[in-house]
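Worked problem 6 (solution included).
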Amino acid sequence: MIDHVDRFQAAVKVLAGHGHIKQRLIKAYEENLDDVQEDELPIAIKQDFADLKLSMHRVAPLNGEGSICASVRKMSVVEASDCAELVVSLYGEMARHGDIGQEHLPLHEDAGDRVPPFLVKTL
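Solution. The predicted structure is:
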């Protein structure tokens, strides 16, 4: 289960990055979620993940592109945003249902002894 949590976390990080929503969605799904099987997920999110998977594979590919690229290409920006929102929601559901422990929730990066740039006094 933890492997799936890590995959959803990685997908959310990609979705929160820079670039067009369609490109981020393709990258997040292809690199992290495409080979996840809904049977391996908690009952609470199985159907939503199955729906997401169907949306991401609904269009037959053309000219050597994959079905994910073809499906996202045919989506409106709103549809792509809805799929991205569903990925974030699924990650949240896994956290709410206790499928990830507190030690696996990335609340912040460990900055160590580094001082944030806005706190450094300039001369």
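Discussion: The chain has one domain: 2-119.
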